[in-house]
Design brief:
By secondary structure, the protein is mostly beta strands. It is built from four helices and 20 strands. The chain has a 17-stranded antiparallel beta sheet that branches. The protein has a three-stranded antiparallel beta sheet with strand order 1-4-5, with no helix packed on it. The chain is elongated. The chain starts with a helix and ends with a helix.
Length: 331
């Protein structure tokens, strides 16, 4: 049944709890309030360590919801400060396993968007979805949160790998899309780019793009559960954004590109920034490219540009291109 697949705590607990549950009817009553010290929480067969936890919940017979007034969890890879409503949907037909529908809000959550990447902080959270323990599947829709001061909307699912015995027990995957509402500056969009993906390109973007605005910032993940080694292909991760009136410090020794406009795309194994217009001193650019064509193994970075008008300007730009490529490799 459903309760076998739910999480279990292995930690010192202080509090109270009572619950009445029927396989065909779901919850009839619940009254839970406890705090837990350092321990581990089980999801399927996987034990996840945590530092502390605190939960307070009760059953609302009028709505059929278990209402959590408080959900707090402190762990190395995940931190929660939430509340919400949970409804257990009993098992139906053989191919319809029991699930938990939820609506969660809260001031704060910390997590890594991609396994092994740096921890990010979300605030003003409103999350709606369902959890199916038997399948190791969490789906969510019409969800919102604030990241680096900007509203982010997301839809999708995360899924745990299934072991040989048919029980969820391996690493998690994700198939989701998220977009940042409105415009942003580089520092606000930067957390969308996982910290361990394309480190040289990621560091270059943070240092090179100055002032200006970013728009249409989005993240798309299609990472299968149980991915061996964590190596991402281009189809598994995409982070894109448009930029306008941006200054680009391509490399030391080259004049600043000003009033830059174009689009950038991070993929699992490459990065491309394409300039559609800009200015380098007296040279007006009609196009340009900064590319890190491969992250693993690291390939040479490339800069190309085309002047908008005179042959003199084109020659001036071309004479700088070798210098740019060489310096990018040395940084």
């Amino acid at each position: 049944g459903l309760t076998h697949g739910l999480s279990a705590l292995n930690a010192p607990i202080d509090g109270r709890g009572s619950m009445a549950y029927g396989r065909g009817t779901g919850f009839q009553s619940a009254d839970v309030a406890f705090s837990a010290g350092t321990g581990r929480i089980r999801f399927g067969k996987v034990l996840q360590p945590f530092d502390s936890a605190k939960v307070r919940a009760s059953y609302n017979p009028q709505t059929g919801d278990v209402e959590f007034d408080q959900i707090r969890l402190a762990a190395a890879a995940l931190g929660l400060d939430l509340k919400g409503k949970f409804r257990l949907i009993p098992q139906g037909k053989p191919k319809q396993p029991a699930r938990i529908d939820f609506e969660v809000t809260g001031p704060k959550a910390t997590m890594a968007f991609v396994p092994g990447s740096e921890i990010q902080t979300l605030s003003d959270i409103a999350l709606r979805g369902s959890y199916t323990p038997e399948l190791g599947l969490i789906g969510f829709h019409n969800s919102r949160a604030s990241l680096a001061g900007k509203t982010v909307e997301a839809n999708g699912q995360i899924e745990q790998a299934i072991g040989k015995d048919g029980v969820p027990e391996g690493s998690w995957g994700a198939k989701l899309t998220a977009r940042m509402v409105g415009t942003a500056v580089v520092d606000q969009a930067y957390p969308f780019w996982p910290g361990k993906v394309g480190i040289p390109a990621r560091n270059w973007v943070k240092a090179a793009l100055k002032k200006g605005t970013l728009s249409n910032v989005y993240l798309a993940l299609d990472i299968p559960p149980g991915l061996p080694g964590g190596h991402l292909t281009n189809d598994m991760l995409k982070v894109g954004f448009d930029f306008d009136r941006v200054s680009i410090d391509v490399v030391e020794g080259l004049p600043l590109i000003e009033d830059g406009r174009g689009r950038a795309l991070v993929q699992g194994d490459r990065f491309d920034l394409r300039l559609t217009s800009g200015r380098m001193r007296s040279v007006r650019l009609s196009e340009g490219l900064v590319s890190f064509p491969k992250f693993n193994p690291v390939a040479d970075a490339v800069f190309e540009g085309r002047a908008q008008r005179s042959e003199e300007h084109t020659s001036e730009l071309q004479s700088r291109q070798y210098l740019v490529c060489r310096l990018l490799l040395e940084k």
